[in-house]
Amino acid sequence: MTAVPINYLAVLAGAIMSMPLGFLWYGPLFGKQWMAWSGMDPKAIDKAKAKGMGKSYTIMFIGSLIMSFVLAHSLVFASVYTQTSGVAAGLMVGVWSWLGFIAPVTLGTVLWDGKPWKLWVLNNAYYLILLCVMGVILALWQ
Hints:
Order of helices and strands: HHHHHHH
Number of helices: 7
């Protein structure tokens, strides 16, 4: 049995990319819409910031690290299966991972939690872009 060739520096870079992308997406770009559609109170967010968000960011980063690590494995297998490499392989793995694992699972926020479709689109667009960026980083550094 051979080891799966994973570039751990690329895995780390993919996880790190989730932080500035998330900051931009849920901050200056779409922060106001996200708060309104999710029913967030700006005062509650200010209160959470005052308490310190280090633990939340740490846990989110660990989740992104796991996502990047699993995506790296998917990329290896998909590259062999489809005979694709580079940016095309990274985008393919990102899109299919989003379509198969993120989009269906997050439907519950609309169907059962009563959140608006606009919020689902906003959150899912973030994950689609993130997975594609991660996929491209992983594919180029493979």
